[in-house]
């Protein structure tokens, strides 16, 4: 159990942590959907309640460097754990640099399977993953290193299934990755080694769904990568160019599927990279949320989410293990961080009832990631998922903010819970679309929701910590690398930005119960990992020894 805090007995009611996903502190009023939004509730909070800024990117959340943006996975890991762990990007980069990834049994089994194949025929080594250097789900340098190593170890055929990004990188940057990578593959394909891109499509159109929100999206990926079904092109460069021509105005993440084929004299194409019995498959994404569903399709014999048509017997590995509780997948190239002693665990051990709620798009973040990549509940935890709409987010930017608020208010009114948490996904999910007007509406929807929720916090005699996991809607336009001002297109319009930002996020202490005794301490190092100890102090408890320091000031 956590020990009582002799300096403060705790607030009389519950402590509520509210995560406004994608809400950074803007540096520019031009391009900030947050500045453009009408948000009386938030404006009032910043004006009247203690507030500071928190670091939510780079080394503060376990990324390799401070040039790396934060993301919802690492952000919620840090908030829930109260500690900073080396995350997927850093773990993989270190394993490749040190060579430990090649020494592991998983990589050795992948190589052996690709070389031995089935039915007397050598297999193919397939790599599936997000094709960019965004470093949120994957990094193209990791893929390049594996291709080089596969050739060095005697694999003869490699096929890559490239999921176009345009979300963690500029929205129409696919050719910046495809063109040089195809040149690299052509250069390395000597001495009997054959490596080519075999299929692909936009990450929001095929394969990379999460939280069971859109299984037809995964089914499209399966038919593309495994069965080789889809529009055919001679190479990936031609595919991107052709799809852009036939789908004008569509950004990379939303481009449809494509298949690379070899054509005979009659123009009939044969896919170059279907996945067959005896092949080896590596999903080279290191982040778990958008890797679990396609992993299940490969490894589950009794899979029933969609008709696979055929289920090739392959040797399958993830870059990391995406779900430790479910052992998905059982074979993985780099061990994930072992996150221990999370706030959820220790509040449970102390006998505190906890409530967690979000809509489908971020439900895993306030549960699985918050609890240190753990799928099961701790004793005393209640989780409530609000099903997300399966529509483009810019079409309904309010998303499920109202329904999440309803659930939180009901939980507060029950008097059952001492610690509650929720995530409003709007600023992030709508920010990723690049639609500025929709993003302002997303922020306004969250502001309306906050106004309702905070009244319920008051009635329960509680306090709230209002924060975010990373920025997004705060910068909706790309910044010029030289001037640091919003970049413009040839026609004078601003270049839309769909990626997360490097900006800090707010932390507001909403407190109407202490009579002004409580405040927040600003420091250069204050980050998301300081929140667990801050919550503990508000509950009248001392922090766990492993947690970073509390930011609470008691006057």
In short:
With 555 residues, the chain is α/β, with parallel strands linked by helices. Helices cover 32% and strands 16% of the residues.
How is this structure best described in words?
There is one protein chain. The chain is α/β, with parallel strands linked by helices. Helices cover 32% and strands 16% of the residues. It is built from 17 helices and 17 strands. β9, α11 and β10 form a beta-alpha-beta unit. The model has no long low-confidence stretch (mean pLDDT 95).
How do the strands and helices of this protein lay out in sequence?
Elements: E1 15-20, H1 33-36, H2 40-48, E2 51-54, H3 72-81, H4 88-98, H5 100-103, H6 105-116, E3 125-130, H7 140-152, E4 157-164, H8 174-188, E5 194-202, H9 215-225, E6 232-233, H10 236-246, E7 258-263, E8 269-271, E9 280-283, H11 292-299, E10 315-318, H12 343-349, E11 354-359, H13 360-369, E12 381-386, H14 401-414, E13 419-424, H15 426-431, H16 436-459, E14 463-467, E15 505-511, E16 518-520, H17 531-538, E17 552-554
Number of helices: 17
Query: What is the CA-based Rg, rounded?
Result: 24 Å
Number of strands: 17
Strand content: 15-25%
Structural class: alpha/beta
User: Quick one: biggest sheet?
Assistant: 8 strands, mixed
Tertiary shape: globular
Helix content: 25-40%
Q: Please, what is the average pLDDT?
A: 95
Contiguous uncertain segments of 5+ residues = none
Distance between the termini: 26 Å
Any descriptors?
32% helix, 7-stranded mixed sheet, 8-stranded mixed sheet, 555 residues
